[in-house]
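Long-time lurker, finally posting.

We've been working with 4-hydroxy-tetrahydrodipicolinate synthase (Pedobacter antarcticus 4BY) and I want a structural starting point before designing mutants. I don't trust myself to interpret raw outputs, so I'm hoping someone here can both generate the structure tokens and explain anything notable. Sequence follows.
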Amino acid sequence: MNRFHGTGVALVTPFNADGSVDYTGLKNLINYQIEGQVEYLVSLGTTGESATLNKEEKKKIWAYTAEINNGRLPLIAGIGGNDTASVVDTIKNFDTAGYDCILSASPYYNKPSQEGIYQHYKAISDVSHLPILLYNVPGRTASNMSAETTCRLAADFKNIIGIKEASGNFEQFNQIMRDKPADFLLISGDDPITLPMIALGASGLISVVGNALPAAVSQLVRLCLQGDFSSALPLHLRLIELTRLAFAEGNPAGIKAALKHFNVCGDQVRLPLVSATTGLNEQIIAELNRIS
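Top reply, 14 upvotes:
Generated this for you. Predicted structure of 4-hydroxy-tetrahydrodipicolinate synthase:
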């Protein structure tokens, strides 16, 4: 589990102008993250626009990402959904070559009870050949996974090794840290609150902003994990405005605008998302120039 301490980056999926997957851009992005010294990568999380990719595209992206990474960093596959049977089938048949873990978001839209969430993850745990990270993101799912449910899953299933927590609820973080098994990982799912979460005991961050600024974000996280918060604080404050801008018109439009500025990949997204407006794009570029 030490492989998932530090900075993970939830990779965007680059697209060509015609909407097809841009594999050259994806290769550039993976190498850019490795050069930025992040600790691990997440393929096809929310930031990867997985909701707009079909099954064949997902399989090809997962395989290509593993091929380009070539074992250089630990690799996590994002596999979630609101149909438990479908998620179970995908995980059961997932080609694990090159992958170290599954990140699975709590079911969205259905608004299951806490028992429903527990049973959903139990079904996933029963079939997964890889360790599992839970993912709680109630701002997207319209359903919060409680600290009690998180810790119950952590205690009952040894292959559930941690949670990416993006609820923004520090009362919930406190409960998880108090009640979880000692080796269960609490990982920040929100860039701007990573510093205080690590101060509480989180093991790091799965970042969006790290797509564009992997070196800066990974340095911030390493300093926090070393307990050097006096050195980490100026970096944290420096990234606040870019983080705000990156999410101002939805994710990943803003961070793709930043990646285009750095010539890593284009800024195309798939509907129903749209690219950053001209005004936001100009603000992002100005902020990148200011902090770079």
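Before you design anything, note these points.
The chain is about 45% helix and 15% strand.
The longest strand covers residues 160-165.
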